[in-house]
Design goal:
The protein has 500 residues and is of the alpha+beta class. The protein has helices spanning 17-29, 79-100, 123-137, 151-157, 159-162, 184-197, 247-254, 277-280, 334-337, 344-353, 355-365, 369-377, 438-449, 454-464, 476-489; strands at residues 5-13, 35-38, 69-70, 76-77, 111-113, 116-121, 146-148, 171-176, 180-182, 201-203, 206-213, 219-225, 231-241, 262-274, 286-288, 302-308, 311-321, 388-403, 407-411, 415-419, 425-430. The protein has a domain at 262-414. The structure holds flavin-adenine dinucleotide.
């Protein structure tokens, strides 16, 4: 067997949006550090970050009803919505910095303004939406949110959804014009092009098979060069496991205690895509509804205008699917091989607890096209089956771990940064809110892995992200400045089309 050996400062595993973001941040903070990337596929952004594999929502809690919870007394808890909105503002500022510094060009290739709406039917849901609107629209982060239960107004906002609708029940919507559609695939590829221009070594078709600690405290990766079939060895002082669904296996291989007692459960996503341009042209928004009782939060149905391959598209979903693979292009053995002696009890406890999720997934997998069309017709009553095709999106691997609040084997729906005690290796697990909050999450990795450099880097971080360490909600002047400048830099001021 032939070995090729290199030593570098930083290794990023995986060429998705997370590694792209961390690499770009580090190149700005310490340009002299050598960074090497290993990606098992032939290009960047081919798994969850690809534009066809996620919904492209710039999650800012403008429309996602599951981010605001009705408390037992009837009041609305908006703390999660505030958190996610603040995190999205961090991404917007970093992307603006990159555009202003000419490190990214043509922001319209990855981000477009698009109204974000929530839509509900039925008295109880309308009352919830009204209360949610009151709670959010009083908050500076959600300024500009409109509410309406007036049919004429709704016809004006969402003609395709209102056409042919029998209005037996009250219906209402909220709308924020400053929402976004983000092409995370395009952004990932643009960031990797930029990194390549900064001499970052990007090795495609290289699969990381093993990670171990060397006697001098470095991390050694066993990497298979898929062109030659040869195994190479590469060492680094710091490793980021940004393998998406592949991260859990790699974290387990590293042997760090922080990676023990954690399991993963794969849930795949499917969308219906409209093939009739006439229908596509009648809608211009992301419209999120309410999740069905028993459905997990990532299954909230939404009807989305998307901008993919410079074309306006219309997608509905997601429907959930099940395969034991942890990556779309993963192995059928992924789930089984992720079960280890240290997480088997956690996994079994989750299996016993999550019977309703299992039942939900079985139901989803068994859906026929006509049953999927029925769900779509709750949004577009006039939808015709011949106008819609099914596309398979990305895999999410939900984290299962033992928590104080939930006990053994609790299914998590957020993202989790796992860092070794000495910060020398970090992994990102989970998938939500995902790509939208990549900059916030990667700053968290930097904070945990490089605490000794934070003071020295703070001024540069503030130059890139003026709100770093500051709550925008509590600093309205800065919030206004950030909203205005990011909208101008990223070209987010398009007027909505008028539907005829
Ligand atoms: C159906 C669906 C809808 C979503 N909708 C949204 C949305 O609307 N908005 C949003 O913000 N987020 C959304 N997300 C989440 C978002 O897509 C993910 O959080 C994000 O793309 C994850 O990026 P990543 O870089 O961690 O992983 P990925 O993009 O999956 O990249 C990981 C990379 O690592 C590589 N890799 C894995 N193992 C190895 C190995 N051993 N060696 C070398 N390379 C390896 C993979 O090939 C892959 O290229 C959605 C996700 C799904 C599945």
């Amino acid at each position: 067997m032939n070995y090729s050996e290199t030593k570098t400062d930083v290794i990023l595993i995986g060429a998705g949006i997370m590694s792209a973001t961390l690499g770009t941040l580090l190149k700005e903070l310490v340009p002299e550090w050598d960074i090497t990337v290993f990606e098992k596929l032939a290009n960047a952004g081919e798994e969850s970050s690809n534009e066809w594999n996620n919904a492209g929502t710039g999650h800012a809690a403008l429309c996602e009803l599951n981010y605001t919870v009705e408390k037992p007394g009837g009041s609305i808890d908006i703390s999660k919505a505030i958190n996610i909105n603040e995190q999205f503002q961090v991404s917007m500022q970093f992307w603006s910095y990159l555009v202003n510094s000419n490190l990214l060009r043509n922001p319209q290739d990855f981000i477009k303004q698009l109204p974000h709406m929530s839509l509900v039917e039925g008295e109880q849901n309308v009352s919830f939406l009204k209360k949610r609107f009151k709670a959010l629209s009083n908050n500076p982060l959600f300024q500009g949110m409109e509410y309406s239960d007036d049919h004429d107004k709704l016809i004006d906002w969402i003609p395709l959804i209102m056409e042919g609708r029998t209005l037996k029940e009250p219906i209402a919507a909220t709308k924020v014009d400053s929402g976004t559609d983000v092409n995370f695939g395009a952004l990932t590829r643009m960031l990797f092009d930029h990194l390549e221009s900064k001499n970052v070594e990007i090795n495609y078709n290289h699969s990381v098979n093993d990670i171990s600690r060397t006697s001098d405290g470095l991390w050694e990766l066993k990497v298979q060069n898929q062109f030659s079939g040869k195994i190479e060895r590469h060492t680094a002082k710091f490793v980021f496991i940004g393998g998406g669904g592949g991260s859990l296996h790699l974290l387990q291989k590293s042997g760090v205690p922080e990676g023990k007692h954690i399991g993963g459960f794969p849930v795949s996503g499917l969308f219906m895509v409209c093939n009739n341009p006439e229908v596509v042209s009648q809608h211009h928004a992301k419209v999120y509804g309410k999740a069905k009782v028993g459905a997990p939060p990532m299954s909230v149905p939404h009807l989305d205008t998307r901008f993919i391959d410079n074309k306006k598209s219309l997608l509905f979903g997601p429907f959930a699917g099940f395969t034991p693979k942890f990556l779309k292009m993963g192995s059928m053995l992924d789930l089984v091989t992720s079960v280890k002696p240290n997480n088997v009890l956690t996994m079994m406890a989750a299996g016993a607890k999550e019977l309703s999720l299992t039942k939900y997934l079985i139901q989803q997998v068994m859906l026929t096209k006509e049953q999927r069309m029925e769900e779509l017709r709750e949004f577009i009553p006039t939808a015709k089956a011949e106008d819609w095709d099914l596309v398979v999106a990305g895999q999410r691997v939900q984290v299962i771990k033992d928590t104080e609040a939930g006990g053994k084997g609790t299914l998590q729906f957020g993202t989790e940064v796992i860092t070794a005690a000495d910060g020398s290796i970090a992994a990102l697990l989970g998938a939500s809110p995902g790509a939208s909050t990549a900059v916030h999450v990667m700053l968290e990795v930097i904070k945990r892995s490089f605490p000794q450099h934070l003071k020295e880097w703070e001024a540069k971080i503030k130059e890139m992200i003026p709100s770093y360490g500051i709550s925008l909600m509590e600093n309205q002047e800065l919030l206004h400045e950030v909203h205005t400048s990011t909208a101008v830099t990223l070209g987010l001021s398009e007027k909505e089309p008028v539907f005829s």
